[in-house]
Design goal:
It comes from Amylocarpus encephaloides. The protein is of the alpha/beta class. It is 28% helix and 24% strand. The protein has 2 domains: 322 residues, Aminopeptidase (3-Layer(aba) Sandwich); 142 residues, Aminopeptidase i, Domain 2, CATH 2.30.250.10.
Length: 509
């Protein structure tokens, strides 16, 4: 890349690419986010603990299932029932996941059984250099079973297409159950690798077989031995110490900057790690100054959920109690922490906290952040003629009259004011602010869904849906804009910086 392309927008995009390459699964995305939050002074807390020690003016994060995350910063002038500025995104992307019994073979090939996760464009997964990543549950040698991240960096799997000479169909719609199994190698090569050693192991096992009862077949029976060896190696344990795992396939081709002027990002998982990254960096940027929380009376919060691509109905999805439970606990936090206080939990000074949760919900605001559709020049007729978002032109406000998106006019007014006050990129010719775009789907097209409507219904909190524009959504390889990364981050930073000031000025009950 040319040395002249070091402006802040490009630097932010390069940092985002590092985040993408480190995050092939929701577990890795949360782990990557935690590293950034910890470096910025956020302290880990747990749901199972008391939060009585939380102090206004401080920053915290917690996880659920290691695949969903909440992080927040408490204003020094916080009072129970005050507003909470929230941004919600999701950590998961459409992918293929190893089946509980993945060991397959056919026509001399070792194959791996997979199931589809979400609504992926599955034909894009053919003829790609694939590997596996996820988490393994392993014995730690101390009598515990713990979670270890696994990311195999080399290509080990591939889903081959059928040669055109054998299939002249004009459309390619593979059967997801019979034609989507990756090949992992050749049976003959695996026999040559293990050969006599495997035979000897089998004989020894038959002679002195372990008689311990196993409710399920052993992992080595359910998965190819070499797959087990690779997972164990990357988890840092012996094969016999791997108790179970959750592994997905991912494309080993790394995210990169492309386009003839280095204005595009080519990557997997832009939906929705693009918005996860902007949310994390926006929160961190908003509290970078030591004085950022001194005059703040709100809580600044981000939440990144798992399982959005499959409907969010899980313990760690947006339809769970994760965010409501966190908000309920935060809404009643006392203004000043005093461990020696003997005040009633229901009354702290002059504040009656029996309705603090409801008060906070009524005054809070949630931005539902999920990537948006950019105009595709080859399919112009698929877009409503007056709503055609472009890449590198700013974050897109998503609107749907049928409430597939939760945006309404008060939310648009608020976001315009936030965008107007945002710090522009350092290399921008605009004196202040960041641009926004509008999107509605055509009346004769179906509309996607987000976490926005379900959370606004569950919380009763004002909500707006938005996202940065991209192409090829749900493909194994997507396209986004370099400059939109910083524009989205600065928009979110401005939201946290100015929400407390703006909240009381937009008067709608």
């Amino acid at each position: 890349m040319s040395s002249k392309l070091i402006p802040s927008s490009v630097a932010k995009a390069i940092d985002f690419i590092d985040f993408l390459n480190d995050s092939p699964t929701p577990y890795h995305a949360v782990h990557s986010a935690i590293r950034r939050l910890a470096a910025a002074g956020f302290t880990e807390i747990k749901e199972r603990d008391s939060w009585s020690s939380l102090i206004p003016g401080s920053k915290y994060y917690l996880t659920r299932n290691a695949s969903s995350l909440v992080a927040f910063a408490i204003g020094s002038k916080w009072k129970p029932g005050n507003p909470i500025a929230m941004i919600g995104a999701h950590t998961d992307s459409c992918c293929l996941r190893l089946k509980p019994v993945s060991k397959k073979s056919g026509a001399g090939f070792l194959q791996v059984g997979v199931e589809t996760y979400g609504g992926g464009i599955w034909h894009t997964w053919f003829d790609r250099d694939l590997s596996i990543a996820g988490r393994a549950m392993v014995r730690d040698g101390k009598g515990n079973i713990v979670s270890r991240l696994v990311k195999v960096d080399r290509p080990i799997l591939r889903i081959p297409t059928l040669a055109i000479h054998l299939d002249r169909k004009t459309s390619f719609e593979p059967n997801k159950e019979t034609e989507l199994f990756p090949i992992a190698g050749l049976v003959a090569a695996e026999l040559n690798r293990t050969g006599e050693e495997e035979d000897r192991k089998s004989e020894e096992e038959e002679e002195g077989k372990d008689q311990t009862f196993r409710p399920l077949k052993g992992m080595a029976e359910r998965h190819h031995p070499y797959v087990m060896e690779i997972i164990a190696e990357h988890a840092g344990v012996e094969v016999e110490d791997v108790v179970d795992f959750e592994m997905v396939l991912y494309d080993t081709q790394k995210a990169c900057i492309g386009g003839i002027n280095n204005e595009l990002i080519f990557s997997a998982r832009l939906d929705n790690l693009g918005m996860t990254y902007c949310a994390v960096e926006g929160l961190i940027g908003s509290v970078a100054s030591e004085s950022a929380l001194v005059e703040e009376s709100t809580i600044r919060l981000i939440t990144c959920f798992d399982h959005e691509e499959i409907g969010s109905t899980s313990a760690q999805g947006a339809a769970s109690n994760f965010l409501p439970a966190v908000v309920r606990r935060l809404a009643v936090l006392p203004s000043h922490h005093d461990s020696s206080s003997d005040k009633s939990y229901e009354k702290l000074g002059d504040v009656d906290i029996t309705t603090a949760y409801e008060q906070s919900l009524a005054t809070s605001f949630l931005i539902s952040a999920d990537m948006a559709h950019s105009i595709n020049p080859n399919y112009m007729d698929k877009y409503e003629s007056d709503h055609r978002p472009e890449m590198n032109k700013g974050t897109v406000i998503k609107i749907d009259a049928n409430q597939r998106y939760a945006t309404n006019s008060p939310g648009i007014v608020l976001l315009q004011e936030v965008a107007r006050r945002a710090k522009p990129p350092a290399d921008s010719t605009t004196p202040n602010g960041v641009p926004l775009q509008l999107f509605v789907v055509r009346n004769d097209s179906s509309c996607g869904s987000t976490i926005g409507p379900m959370l606004s219904a569950a919380l009763g909190t004002r909500t707006l849906d938005l996202g940065n524009p991209q192409l090829s959504m749900h493909s194994i390889r997507e396209t986004g804009g370099v400059y939109d990364v910083e524009l989205g981050t600065r928009l979110f930073e401005s939201f946290f910086d100015h929400f407390g000031e703006l909240e009381g000025k937009i008067l709608v009950d």
